[in-house]
Amino acid sequence: MAPRALLGIMVTLSLAACGPVGVDEGSGVDGSHVTPTNATDGGTDLAPIGTDGTTPYEDPCSDEAKLVYVVDSSGMFSSFDPHPTPPVFTDLGLLSTCPRTGTETPFSMSVDRDAIAWVLSSDGNLFRVDIKNNLACTKAAFVPGQSGLTLFGMGFVTNSVGGTADTLYIAGGSDPASGTASAMLGTVTFPDLTLQTIKQVSGWPELTGNSNAELWGFYPDATSPKVARIDKQTAVEDPIYQLPSLAGEPQAWAFAFWGGDFWIFLARGALDPKTSVYRVKGSDGSLSTAIENTGRRIVGAGVSTCAPIVID
């Protein structure tokens, strides 16, 4: 999410944003990637296999597609490796041709299986950033404001457990500062970038997904922040992990799944004007601080469904 000067109006609401669905570009007949593996649970510990069930072949997911990426309010685009302790940021460069000044500042982000980052600007335009090509950035042919959704968060999710065809989910509305207490869940289809609405969700969650076909949301809030799994058809939340120690006026936030856990990037007004990073264990919802005061103001995070489900 973009820096929240406009969040003063929202502190009594469940905040955040992420949303609509789309299928990422790739080699499948439906425009998605197809990666047969011998894993049955979406894990990454088993090697891909050939069509005969035995012959190994090269993993179509690049190393770049397996990392978390973040963008800060200045437009600095960085990778985030959660595996070391503490996790490591590596700055890759400024998004010089993407939104970062004036009315076009980064608002939210997601990453597909081709290591393409999709960056939403604060004026509702969508930009395509090629991570493997020196962050080459182009404005996508996306029409802002479809179905009344101008600002939203995003997360790619596989359509089936262990699958490789993805959908891009979003949740948002016209403006998180408008006083609306709920966001609309939807999808963005590829390659036409058409937005389809599903159902309203309580609050404004930032979204992330994984190869277990799960959609999750982080709901920053002045009093009742939480992480919850969101049903992709009904928007029902279950399970819900309450995070009372993260209460406080949210100013900038982002959210990503990696290695079976959730990673929250959060700045909260006077409490911590710069982003701190928190880890929420996927198994039980327990919270720990991964990095206190990164010196950054992170407004977007993205991770593809190539990211590991478990870490050996």
Task: Tell me about this structure.
This protein is mainly beta. It has one domain: Neuraminidase (6 Propeller), CATH 2.120.10. It has strands at residues 68-72, 76-81, 88-94, 106-111, 116-121, 126-130, 136-139, 151-158, 166-173, 182-189, 194-202, 206-209, 215-219, 226-230, 237-242, 252-258, 261-268, 272-281, 287-291, 298-303. The strands form five sheets. A four-stranded antiparallel β-sheet has the order 3-2-1-20, with no helix packed on it. Strand 5 and strand 6 form a beta hairpin. The chain is globular and about 45 Å long.
Break the fold down into its secondary structure elements and pairings.
Layout: E1 68-72, E2 76-81, E3 88-94, E4 106-111, E5 116-121, E6 126-130, E7 136-139, E8 151-158, E9 166-173, E10 182-189, E11 194-202, E12 206-209, E13 215-219, E14 226-230, E15 237-242, E16 252-258, E17 261-268, E18 272-281, E19 287-291, E20 298-303
Antiparallel strand pairs: 1-2, 1-20, 2-3, 4-5, 5-6, 6-7, 8-9, 9-10, 10-11, 12-13, 13-14, 14-15, 16-17, 17-18, 18-19
Question: What is the percent of helical residues?
Answer: under 10%
Q: What do the pLDDT scores average to?
A: 83
**What is the total domain count?**
1
Instruction: Count the DSSP helices.
Output: 0
Number of strands: 20
What is the terminal separation in angstroms?
32 Å
Determine Rg (CA atoms, Å): 18 Å
**Main beta sheet: strand number and arrangement?**
4 strands, antiparallel
CATH-derived architecture: 6 Propeller
Shape: globular
CATH C-level? Mainly Beta
SSE string, helices as H and strands as E: EEEEEEEEEEEEEEEEEEEE
Task: Indicate the low-confidence ranges by residue numbers.
Answer: 3-49
Strand order across the largest sheet: 3-2-1-20
